Amino acid sequence: MKTILQAKHVNKTFGTKGNQYTALQNIDLSIEEGEFVGIMGPSGAGKSTLLNIFSTIDTPTSGEITIDGQNIVTMNEEKLSDFRRNKLGFIFQDYNLLDTLTVKENILLPLALSKVPAAEIEKRVEAIADTFGIRQILDKYPYHISGGQKQRAAASRAIVANPSLILADEPTGALDSKSATSLLESLSKLNQGNQATILMVTHDAYAASFCKRVIFINDGRLFRELHKDGLTRKEFFGRILEVLASLGGEHHDAV
Amino acid sequence: MTLFRIAGKNIRKNFTDYFLYFASMIFSIVIYFTFVSLKYDNTIQSASDGSQKISSAFSGAAVVLIVFVAIFIWYSNSFFTRKRKKEVGLYSLLGVRKKQIGRMLFYENFLMGILALIVGISLGSVLSRFFVMILMKVMGYSVVANFSISPAAILNTFLVFMIITLITSVQGYRLIYRFKLIELFKADQEHEKEPKSSVLIALLSVILIGFGYWLALQNLVTSKAWATLGFMLTPLVILITVILGTYLLFNTLTVSLLKLSRKNKKSYWKGLNLIGTSQLLYRMKGNARTLTVIAVLSATTLTAVGTAYSLYYNNRLNAEMANPNSFTFIGVDGKTTAKADQAIGQAPGHKVLYHESVPVLEVDADISGLKQNAGSMEQTYSVIASRDFNRLAKLQGRDDFVSLEGSEAAVLDPAYMEGISPDYVGSTVKLQGKGINEAIRFKALKEYTVLNLGTVYSTIVVGDEMFAALQPKAQTTTIEAYGISRQDKAKELTKQLQSILPEKAELSSFYDQYARGMESSGLLMFMGGFLGLVFLAATGSIIYFKQLTEASSDKARYLILHKIGVKKREIRKSVAKQVLFIFALPLAFGIAHCAVALMALSKLMMTSLVVPVVSCMGIYVCIYLIYYFLTVHAYCKIVTNTK
């Protein structure tokens, strides 16, 4: 199976000499095509920093990262933009939809940026809208729809250009449990049906239980890794809670 | 820590935020101060004979400036306070009393006002000296350099801006009382609704502008519309229809067009067109008023400056038209004529290009035969022979001649206006007098003359035989006509001739009219240019402020775009396109309105204004372009600053 993301010895420190803070320390990670990986850890563990680095929005202090065979650490700004556009899809906690565009226009934005012909755009948007069940709100504006609908629209935008890797940052963070479940089921379906590779950062054990593999980080280091393998979602959920408990405190909100 | 000190600290810490507001205040003060010190300046008043005229012109312009400056400061103040709503809300949330916040804002604004006044007046003192030199130059005076700062000007400026500062400071004080806390926090988050457009109103806007243009371009004399509406009302109707049309056009037609362009998916769904078009669409309606103001201001500025410059530019042409010779005078007696001839021949720096003595007859005529003649029935004509006319025309560099036989004649009328002047060609008038009773028929009309208007009556040319027949019976005078080199510098010579020649000689010189024209049109030109520059700077700044406000509220949007992989170069391109739309739209309409106004003016003045007007527009567009590039640069800097 093809390796989509390969990170070797990734370090990230903030601040200047004498007042340094290590956010990430010697992270090694590899993600294969078709995986659905969750990253968990307490606040301040470095989850978001890691995701920002994978998103090419931030750069590591040292280490090597290849995504889909390309080294993203040595790329210049121009190339990074192209790379983000063609290889990555993003789902953010706060949706990041453009409120001057309709849902449909928001979804087709990445395709428009890549200059895909209009007829092709139409076809792909319709297909994706069906996957996420948002066909009836396509012509509405973001401020007219609910949070759950917004997040499904954002997810549609993330995958419409068939990216090599979808990065999700706390996608269920602002959703109620019903909307969250429906979004997670959609992502799961996408992962199984279309072999989409998804990396999701979450602090919610319930959300993480939809993944095939969960990586725990603590104090900037890899702490443990859990595989779902044959387990049911509920069993997997239990395992995740156990690990979280061993990470200690601060996780009352996980249940 | 006292409130006063917090206010002072606020200014120091956020200086970059304050800078724009501060700069626009200083700008206004410098302009106003310069203008008032010109008004109070002795050098200018004593240099001009018509000091009353100059002083009242300056007073009028100063009032226009006050109104304008007040609006401008108020505008930048509201832009500035909008930026700070959140900060004010935060103070209130933290439990600072409303009264205290209000007082703090008041002090802050007041402090800035005083500071701007000091800087503005000091800067203005330096600049006004420079402006005096320019003014003297365009008015054709030699520069006098002992210009001093008048206390009256300082006092005047101080009072005017103190009042403006007080008003804006009170406005700042009231900010916290005017809004609910929640409104202060949500200043930037109000949801923008998609604007509606109506085809009917869009159509109406085009009709209104079209009607205004049509009305403006009518012939004043023959138009039925002007006759029914009246000469006072029609310009007002034109103004209202065009301004209203412009507003409606910006408000709906642009929205309709943008919506239409959205229907074309092939281009709309291409790259950042999606973003640019939708942004414009949302902003258009809110911007309609500003854009209209800018279009109207641009049109006014261009028209005023264009008119003033045209007058200045055409001054030489007008002087030449009325005075085809450098000097003409009637040879009253041989002695003074010889003395004058000698003076002209020996004038240092001038060469005599030609000297002609032209016999001229003074003849009364019954002109009831003229077609379309509304005036009197009788007129005195100066009559010259066709060979004299042909010789003078050639000397004056005209490639034109007349050949007249029998009772044929030609009329010279440099002020001829079709539709208003009599319809000469084909008409017959009767020359009358002692022993004269001659009917002559006008065969030709020349829209220029060969003898200076100040020396002769309306001039007609008759055939040589007719002239010879008339000469013994009519009163004959000899007119001396001179052409000299560098006639626009003949100040000394003109003075000399005026003292030599008696009143009866009716001396008429090119220089005299030229200099008088330079003085009045030079003043107009300077004032037009000065106000024009101020208006231009202000319109540019208004768009600049407006765009930067939008940029800061768009920042989040561009951050999203950056995250999903839009290059900075592409963002820059999209921003440039968007801003261009906002800049070009009012400019295009300003230029169109101005072009129509000046076309009407050009018809009225019967001169071609193309050269002066186009050069004015050229300069205007150039300065406007500088603002455009500055705005694009600042906008991009705000939205692409991702850190």
The name of the CATH topology of chain A is Rossmann fold
Main sheet specs of chain A: 6 strands, mixed
Main sheet overview of chain B: 6 strands, mixed, barrel
Compute the number of helices of chain B.
Answer: 19
Domain ABC3 transporter permease C-terminal (chain B): 61-177
Transmembrane segments (chain B): 18-38, 58-76, 106-132, 152-176, 197-216, 236-258, 291-312, 523-545, 579-601, 607-630
Organism (chain B): Paenibacillus cookii
Keywords (chain B): Cell membrane, Membrane, Transmembrane, Transmembrane helix, Transport
Provide an overview of this structure.
Chain A is of the alpha/beta class and 255 residues long. Helices cover 37% and strands 25% of the residues of chain A. Chain A has helices at residues 47-54, 77-87, 103-113, 118-132, 147-159, 177-194, 205-208, 233-247; strands at 3-14, 21-32, 36-40, 62-67, 70-71, 88-91, 165-169, 198-201, 213-218, 221-227. Chain A has a six-stranded mixed beta sheet, sandwiched between helices. In chain A, strands 2-1-4-5 form a four-stranded antiparallel beta sheet, covered by helices on one side. In chain A, strand 9 and strand 10 form a beta hairpin. Residues 250-255 of chain A have low confidence and may be disordered. Chain B is of the alpha+beta class and 643 residues long. Among the domains of chain B are: 1-190, no CATH class; 352-484, no CATH class. Chain B contains 19 helices and nine strands. In chain B, strand 5 (428-433) and strand 6 (436-446) form a beta hairpin. Classes of the chains: A alpha/beta (255), B alpha+beta (643).
Q: What would you say about this model in short?
A:
The complex is a heterodimer of chains A (255) and B (643). Chain A is of the alpha/beta class.
Keywords for this entry:
A: Rossmann fold, six-stranded mixed beta sheet, disordered C terminus, B: 643 residues, 19 helices, 67% helix, elongated, P-loop_NTPase (chain A), nucleotide-binding (chain A), transport (chain A), ABC_transporter-like_ATP-bd (chain A)
